[in-house]
Amino acid sequence: MLVYTFDRTLDGLLTAVFDSFALHQQPEMLLGEGGVLPLFTEEVHPVVTANDKAQRVWTGLEKQLCKEAVRMITVSWLSEETELDTPLFHYICKVFREKRDISRNFADQDVLFVTNTARRVMHEQLRMKQFMRFQKAKDGTYLGVVSPDHNVLPLIIDHFQDRFQDQPWLIYDAKRRYGYYYSLTPDPGLTPRSAEGRLQGKNPSPTGERNFNGEGSIYSQEQGQVWRTGREAVVRITFEDDESLPFSLENGKLDEAVLSENDRLFQDLWRTYFKAICIKERMNPKKQLSDMPRRYWRYMTEKQ
User: Fold this and answer.
1) Closest Cα to residue 174, out of 146, 197, 195, 136?
2) Interior/surface letters 62-82, b for 16+ CB within 10 angstroms, e for the rest
3) In angstroms, rounded to a whole number, what is the distance separating the alpha carbons of residues 167 and 196?
4) Which residues of 284-297 are buried (b: 16+ CB within 10 A; e: fewer)?
5) Residue 168 contacts residue 143 (beta carbons within 8 Å)
6) pLDDT mean across residues, the chain
7) Does the structure show a pLDDT above 50 at 128?
8) Which residues, in sequence order, are bridge partners of residue 6?
């Protein structure tokens, strides 16, 4: 059995596809670094990620597949599931071997696996839009904390920018330790560090790396840019350490010193409303768990 190993990045996977054709090989498995090799492994080829090779493969995919199919690949990758590596690798290889769009061939197990994975990711990003709860900080910034199973933040930022254009906000992924900060006013010095400081009531010097989060392909993200639309800007931020966070990772609650004076009242009012509209005779816990899984409850105000 021939096994390819890679660094578990999308560039690494695309480079593995390039190596497969360059070396005229068809590995049975694509395995992330540190994974356990199958029992009957005869040969291992370590893939060295190369951006130029990955870009060539990606350009070829965009020529062979429709836009929806290309997006399906990037969305499925956001699942972060290790089981996806080999099916996605085989899927992309088949596209180049057959030289046609196979994205609708659901009789192919690799195509079906990638498609179903992408659907699970899209389903969760929809739930993130439904179950996001915000708290207001004293500086007027609204904080929403989530911990999704899949890395769906890049898929939902457009939605919240369109819906909440008149207020600054920070959406933070507690599981992956990063978030997106949205600003209202033009600020050439807007950086992850300055965004972090605003939520904490500080004004530190603008330092740190910035990541672009634009429309279209998730793969074609550019480093060193802030996504701007008119006067507004969205910047990807991380905090230096968990102790510097002005909120709890366990339940997403803002520290009392940072929380707006009126927000506690609004939270109590929302819980009261949630209880008031509940009809006990019609309670269906099984249906509620189906529509609102328990794993989301700890960040939802009405469930705290």
Assistant:
1) 146
2) eebbeeebbbbbbbbbbbebe
3) 16
4) eeeeeeeebeeebe
5) no
6) 83
7) yes
8) 32
Residue 78, pLDDT above cutoff 70: yes
| Beta-bridge partners for 142 | 136, 169
CB 206 within 8 A of CB 247: no
d(CA 262, CA 191): 29
pLDDT tens readout for residues 2-36: 999 999 999 999 999 999 999 999 999 999 998 89
Query: Hey, what are 160's tokens?
Result: 């919240």
Question: Is residue 50 classed as helix, strand or coil in its secondary structure?
Answer: coil
How far apart CA 25 and CA 35 sit, in angstroms, is 21
- Within 251-295, residue ranges assigned H as helices are 263-276, 285-291
188: confidence class by pLDDT, cuts 50, 70, 90: very low
Structure tokens belonging to residue 86: 């080999």
Q: Looking at the whole model, is its pTM more than 0.85?
A: no
pLDDT band at residue 185, thresholds of 50, 70 and 90? Answer: low
Please, which residues have CB within 8 angstroms of residue 146's CB and are 6 or more apart in sequence?
128, 131, 132, 153, 171, 172, 173, 174, 252, 296, 299
Q: Which two tokens stand for residue 21?
A: 């054709």
**How far lies 205's CA from each of 29, 199, 235, 285, in Å?**
47, 14, 16, 50
Given this model, what pLDDT does residue 232 score? 55
DSSP 3-state of 36 = coil
